[in-house]
């Protein structure tokens, strides 16, 4: 329903509806609106991949004041 709403220009959030303004992201939205199970499969795979990313603690890493520059 979410992707169908975007295709129908009925997205709730402007930032979400903006996905339809770019040809690349619009084609992805249209694809997911036609095959919603594809979204869930790909989302699940992305979450599994994200879960494998190692988390570092304060002693192992740093919190940057500017993401582009090492403190």
TrEMBL record:
Cofactors demanded by this protein: Ca(2+); heme b
Enzyme class: oxidoreductase
UniProt EC number: 1.11.1.7
Superkingdom field: Eukaryota
Single Gene Ontology MF annotation: lactoperoxidase activity
Keyword field: Heme, Iron, Metal-binding, Oxidoreductase, Peroxidase
Keyword Kinase: no
Domain Plant heme peroxidase family profile stretches: 1-71
Known catalytic reactions: 2 a phenolic donor + H2O2 = 2 a phenolic radical donor + 2 H2O
UniProt keyword annotation of Iron present: yes
GO biological process, one term: response to oxidative stress
Chain coiled-coil ranges: none
PANTHER family, A to Z: PEROXIDASE 16-RELATED, PTHR31517
Protein name as annotated: peroxidase
UniProt source species: Nepenthes gracilis
Top-level taxonomy: Eukaryota, Viridiplantae, Streptophyta, Embryophyta, Tracheophyta
């Amino acid at each position: 329903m979410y992707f169908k709403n975007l295709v129908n220009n009925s997205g709730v959030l402007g930032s979400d509806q903006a996905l339809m303004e770019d040809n690349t992201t619009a084609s992805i939205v249209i694809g997911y609106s036609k095959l919603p199970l594809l979204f869930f499969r790909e989302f699940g795979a992305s979450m599994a991949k994200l879960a494998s990313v190692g988390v570092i603690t304060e002693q192992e890493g740093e919190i940057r004041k500017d993401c582009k520059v090492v403190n």
